[in-house]
């Protein structure tokens, strides 16, 4: 009986490992969507142009499309970046409050990571764990690389680690500066949106003004002159 149970457990483990390897192999075989789209664009150029010119133009077209498509930020990455930028001022305020209460830097960072929710909390958790394990501050705070505005927070943390300067006051000022920067960016975005809204109207009315106002005058003047 025990041998049967052991055999069934062995078969289960073998089946699970085989399925895991199959799923991993299937994930590796998944085609790159960007590369596929670039290849289709190159193929379209070759079909539309035709001949040797089409074949010669297909390769650089596919290469350029691959470069351009990889530079476009995906919606998921954009949402993550905006969420991290929005949570950063609150994280700086919470860090300053925890440090004023007497908590060390590593415990403060872990407490803020537990209090927050989202991608920034995951980054702060990595920072706190690295500091708690005695890691280098440069390596620890590098987990915030790519977060808009986080370079000022890491610079303040480096100064505090090297010179012993108080970090809580710098974090409070940083939170105020980040909120002011967000307000300025929102105002600039609103102004830019107003210009972009008016631009299509101008593009519609300008040809109408030229055709209805200027063209009859020019035709009349040319008729009198000729």
The major beta sheet can be summarized as:
none
* Computed CA radius of gyration, to the nearest angstrom: 30 Å
Name the shape in a single word. flat
Q: Work out the helix count.
A: 9
Percent of residues in helices: over 70%
Mean pLDDT, to the nearest integer, reads 77
Polypeptide structure, described:
The protein has about 230 residues and is mainly α. Among the domains are: about 30-70, no CATH class; about 75-180, Receptor-associated Protein. About 85% of the residues lie in helices and about 0% in strands. The chain is flat and about 90 Å long.
List keywords for this structure.
Receptor-associated Protein; single chain; 226 residues; mainly alpha
Task: Detail the topology: elements first, then pairings.
Layout (H helix, E strand, L loop, with lengths): L1 H27 L4 H17 L1 H21 L3 H26 L4 H11 L3 H14 L4 H5 L8 H14 L3 H59 L1
Helix pairs in contact: 2-3, 4-5, 4-9, 5-6, 8-9
Give a concise summary.
It contains 9 helices and no strands. With 226 residues, the chain is mainly alpha-helical.
């Amino acid at each position: 009986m025990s041998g049967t149970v052991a055999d069934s457990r062995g078969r289960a483990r073998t089946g699970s490992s085989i399925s895991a390897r199959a799923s991993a192999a299937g994930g590796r075989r998944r085609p790159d969507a960007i590369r596929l789209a670039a290849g289709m664009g190159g193929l379209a150029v070759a079909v539309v142009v035709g001949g040797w010119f089409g074949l010669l133009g297909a390769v650089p077209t596919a290469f350029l499309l691959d470069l351009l498509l990889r530079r476009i930020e995906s919606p998921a990455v954009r949402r993550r970046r905006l969420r991290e930028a929005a949570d950063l001022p609150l994280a700086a305020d919470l860090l300053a409050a925890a440090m004023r209460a007497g908590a060390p830097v590593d415990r403060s960072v872990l407490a803020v990571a537990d209090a927050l929710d989202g991608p920034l909390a995951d980054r702060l958790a990595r920072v706190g764990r690295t500091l708690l394990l005695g890691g280098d501050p440069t390596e620890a705070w590098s987990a915030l690389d790519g977060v808009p505005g986080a370079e000022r927070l890491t610079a303040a943390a480096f100064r505090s680690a090297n010179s012993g300067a108080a970090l809580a006051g710098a974090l409070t000022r940083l939170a105020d500066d980040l909120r002011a920067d967000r307000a300025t960016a929102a105002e600039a975005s609103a102004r830019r949106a107003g210009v972009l809204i008016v631009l299509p109207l101008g593009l519609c009315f300008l040809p109408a003004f030229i055709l209805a106002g200027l063209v009859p005058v020019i035709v009349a003047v040319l008729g009198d002159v000729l």
